[in-house]
Amino acid sequence: QVQLVESGGGLVQAGGSLRLSCAASGRAFSMYAMGWFRQAPGKEREFVAAISWSGGSTYYADSVKGRFTISRDNAENTVYLQMNSLKPEDTAVYYCAADSTRATLTKTSAAQYEYDYWGQGTQVTVSS
Prior knowledge:
Layout: E1 4-7, E2 10-13, E3 18-24, E4 33-39, E5 46-51, E6 58-60, E7 68-73, E8 78-83, E9 92-99, E10 117-118, E11 122-127
Parallel strand pairs: 2-11
Antiparallel strand pairs: 1-3, 3-8, 4-5, 4-9, 5-6, 7-8, 9-10, 9-11
């Protein structure tokens, strides 16, 4: 069983930065691929970024590429999402997710069905 707890959300002006954290329970965290997803009001949840077990491979949605950076610290059982140059359209609830069946990224790592553990989400609001 894996429990994920996100933190770091808040209100920020356009152009600003935030860093989200996702603290995970369980010794096997370091073996899991991890992902960030988001859901804006009235929209479906969408993929943001994913990272392999070692942090050596990352993958981003086109909408955040070059602005967001996913990273992880396996010693601290934590995955991060550094968000820079934030835009009002980045406003959403951000969710951390764990894929306990894979350590590396695949072509389906952006798919929600690949992830079997989810956090409760943290709100990010970007004002214009």
